[in-house]
């Protein structure tokens, strides 16, 4: 199948899906009466109020920051305080740990529902032994006091130093530690690759259509 045909097929398919979803939502709204709309509004207001209360409680508990622990005792204290904990086991003078810290500082402000913290492995010999920490950095994902998953090094993040914050967020969200509005079945970095591939196909089509055109503006809109 020609690239132009493939592109048109994808566009038409995506348009059809969006139209079907919109039609379904409009149909639902058409079936609602005044009482239904009022109930929906009240329900949403309660949800928003609960979300705001939760945020205030999390901030009061120290969520929203990337906390460095001084000892193992603090680890157990914070795990008891918060249902969702993301703890990075790090080592000083580690480039990989510095890279991970950059992403964690971003995510901790976006996900107040979880506590983000880190502890130097040299200050946590008992924990590293008990949890089987062998690779630095390792991220322990803890829910209700139990470690439910680990992110060991960068292997699960594309096995490179250039992974995105979104990729780390997606991986953490798979454990249920943080809320996630995207598609958990598809890594965000893979979506970018697919989009870039589609854009390259589009460029190829445009270049083919403009073959023989000597205008300097040929690629300005690509």
Reported for the largest beta sheet, the result is:
5 strands, mixed
Work out the helix count: 7
**CATH architect. name of the domain at 56-173:** 3-Layer(aba) Sandwich
Strand order of the largest sheet: 1-3-2-4-5
CATH superfamily of the domain at 56-173: Glutaredoxin
Mean pLDDT: 82
Low-confidence stretches: 193-199, 207-222
Estimated share of beta-strand residues: 5-15%
Q: What's the CATH topology name of the domain at 56-173?
A: Glutaredoxin
Given helix and strand content, the structural type is alpha/beta
Q: Roughly how much helix do the residues carry, as a percent range?
A: 40-55%
SSE series? HHEHEHEHEEHH
Question: What's the gyration radius in Å?
Answer: 24 Å
What distance lies between the first and last C-alpha atoms, to the nearest angstrom?
Answer: 23 Å
Domain Thioredoxin: 71-156
Pfam families: Thioredoxin (PF00085)
InterPro entries: Thioredoxin-like_sf, Thioredoxin_domain
Protein name: Thioredoxin domain-containing protein 9
Q: Can you tell me about this structure?
A:
The chain is of the alpha/beta class and 222 residues long. The chain has a domain at 56-173: Glutaredoxin. The chain has 7 helices and 5 strands; from the N terminus they run ααβαβαβαββαα. The chain has helices spanning 3-31, 34-60, 72-81, 95-110, 125-131, 165-173, 188-209; strands at residues 66-68, 84-90, 115-120, 138-143, 146-152. It is globular and about 65 Å long. InterPro entries: Thioredoxin-like_sf, Thioredoxin_domain.
């Amino acid at each position: 199948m020609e690239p132009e045909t493939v592109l048109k097929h994808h566009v038409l398919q995506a348009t059809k899906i969006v139209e079907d979803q919109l039609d379904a939502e409009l149909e639902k709204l058409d079936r609602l009466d005044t009482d239904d709309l009022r109930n929906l509004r009240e329900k949403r207001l309660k949800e928003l109020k609960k979300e705001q209360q939760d945020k205030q409680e999390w901030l009061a508990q120290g969520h929203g920051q990337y906390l460095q622990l001084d000892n193992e005792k603090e680890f157990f204290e914070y795990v008891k305080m918060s249902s969702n904990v993301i703890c990075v086991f790090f080592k000083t003078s580690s480039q990989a740990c510095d890279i991970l810290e950059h992403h964690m500082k971003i995510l901790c402000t976006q996900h107040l529902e979880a506590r983000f913290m880190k502890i130097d492995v040299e200050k946590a010999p008992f924990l590293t032994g008990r949890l089987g920490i062998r690779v630095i950095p390792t991220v322990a994902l803890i829910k209700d006091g139990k470690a439910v998953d680990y992110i060991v090094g960068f292997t699960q993040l594309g096995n490179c130093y250039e992974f995105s914050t979104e990729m780390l967020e997606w991986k953490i969200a798979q454990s249920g530690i943080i809320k996630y509005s995207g598609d958990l079945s598809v890594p965000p970095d893979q979506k970018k690759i697919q989009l870039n591939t589609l854009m390259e196909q589009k460029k190829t089509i445009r270049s083919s259509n403009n073959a023989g055109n000597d205008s300097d503006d040929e690629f300005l809109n690509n």
